[in-house]
Amino acid sequence: MRPPRDKKLSPFRQRDDQLRQGRAAAPTLRTACPTATVVNVTLRFLTPTLPLHADQSFALYPAARAYFSYPCPYGDCDGVFDVSEPAGRTLAREKAQVAGTLTCSGLRSRDGLVRQSCGLRVNYTISSQHESAGAVTPGRRVSGE
Ligand SMILES: [Zn+2]
What we know:
Elements: H1 11-25, H2 29-32, E1 36-46, E2 56-60, E3 69-71, E4 80-82, H3 84-91, E5 97-103, E6 107-108, E7 116-117, E8 121-130
Antiparallel strand pairs: 1-2, 1-8, 3-4, 5-8, 6-7
The structure holds zinc ion.
């Protein structure tokens, strides 16, 4: 399936552009939080009907952009899950792990239907690991998945 080449952007293209721009503008994790060695984000979608959406998990390392917005997995939804606030709490070391639920505020445009609010819920879990000052083993590695 080829994307349309029209000039006016669809809501999905706009969302993708916003995500891309937001990520490009975000500082790296190393800049945002020099002590963080890895941030793990897990999204578990609570779909009321089939098909289920697979869990998504992301591991951010210091060179990655500290950007915590993820598109709604529905292909016809323009929503974004923004977990930057809870992610900031783990980066600030308020908590090692933060979990919560978000509801998609995007609109879905299915064939033949007026655009409807999405309302997909997601359980998120965010955890971060930090170097503990003075106790860093040289050459220590954090293994990814
Ligand atoms: Zn959605």
